[in-house]
Amino acid sequence: LRWRGDAFEMDIIGTWRLVRAEAFDGDGKPQAPPYGNVPMGRLMLTRAGRMMAMTGDGRAVVPDDQIREYNSYSGNYRFDGKQLVTRVDCCSNPAYMGTEQVRDVSTEKGLMVLRPPVRAYADRPPEQRVLYWERISDADG
Fold first, then answer.
1. What pLDDT shows up at residue 6?
2. pTM of the predicted model as reported, rounded to 2 decimal places
């Protein structure tokens, strides 16, 4: 956060590391954590309005009854202080191409918290994911 006039404004520019990922069902009940409890990810946001994100399962071995999740996308973004909206122009999942990916943005204990809309992921029923990001560089891209 940084002070701008008479209010705080979140500075999202830089490179971020995924440190925690949670999931909740439609009733708010905790679900198995995404990425097998070992989330890996990077998020880069530039002053020029470009972003790139990658998230994945960092476990060395995934049990036979589970799948290894991976997702990446990039595009031009806009941020109004509460929502990050990216117009996807490059992605690992063809279904994302040309869509707007919306993330609610907040902070918690120095971390940036992103909440995508409720939806189904891989072989899981619809859920609300919550991704916690730690800034590792404030460099512009």
1. 45
2. 0.89
State the average pLDDT for the chain.
90
Contact 81, 10 (CB under 8 A): yes
pLDDT in tens, 9-28: 578 999 999 999 999 998 89
CA torsion, ordered 130, 89, 135, 71, to nearest 10 deg? 50
- Contact of 73 with 101, CB cutoff 8 Å: yes
DSSP string covering 53-104: EEEEE--SS--TTS---EEEEEEEEEE-SSEEEEEEEEESSGGGTTPEEEEE
Residues belonging to the chain? 141
Query: Does position 58 have pLDDT exceeding 50, yes or no?
Result: yes
Distance, CA of 30 to CA of 75 (rounded, Å):
31
The answer to whether the CB of 91 falls within 8 A of the CB of 72 is yes
> What does the block give as tokens for 92?
């690992």
- Rounded Cα distance between 86 and 100, Å, is 5
- Joined together, the tokens standing for residue 11 give 């500075």
Are the beta carbons of 75 and 88 closer than 8 angstroms? Answer: yes
